[in-house]
Amino acid sequence: MATDPKLCPKCSPAPEGGLEPLQVDETEVDRCAGCGGIWFDKGELGPLLNHDTGKIRVLLGGSDPEALDQKTGACPIDQKRMIRVTSARNRHVVIETCPTCQGIWLDGGEFERIKRAQPNWRLGDLV
Ligand SMILES: [Zn+2]
Ligand SMILES: [Zn+2]
Which residues 6+ apart lie within 8 Å of 87 measured at CB? Predict the structure, then answer.
């Protein structure tokens, strides 16, 4: 039984064949060849953000065109409209999450922006 391709929530029309599987260390995420956005199933994003930069290099980079950032798409899994939320790590980054399956969509470049916002400095560094 063939599974339906997961379609990009941001590109219209979405690239044929849907999102492309992308192996990152031991996790498989899905990336859109059109816009560079990445889909994380529930629970996949958190652990990846804590990985060494070397292992997740493939997720870094990319750009986040304003027009796509403003757009709210449908979940690639269940087609429910996703909701926009502000990243807890970087309040300048708006991410999308599905209220049904709780997967997360990051536009191109957003993973890096959230990753870099990790508070890894000590308070003493500020003074
Ligand atoms: Zn796309
Ligand atoms: Zn969903």
Answer: 93, 94, 95, 110, 114, 117
Ligand 1 centroid–CA 108 distance in Å is 9
Distance (Å, whole) CA 13 – CA 61: 24
Q: How many whole angstroms from 120 Cα to the centroid of ligand 2?
A: 32
What are the residues whose beta carbons fall under 8 Å from the beta carbon of 125, sequence distance 6 or more?
none
Give the closest residue to 31 by CA, choosing from 115, 110, 125: 110
Residues near 42 by Cβ (< 8 Å), separated by ≥ 6? 101, 102, 103, 104
Whole-angstrom distance, CA of residue 18 vs CA of residue 77: 11
Closest CA to 83 of 67, 74, 8, 122: 74
| Residues flanking ion ligand 2, Cβ below 5 Å | 75, 77-78, 98, 100-101
- Give per-residue pLDDT as tens, 50-74: 898 899 999 998 887 788 888 889 9
- 84-97: pLDDT as tens digits: 999 988 889 999 99
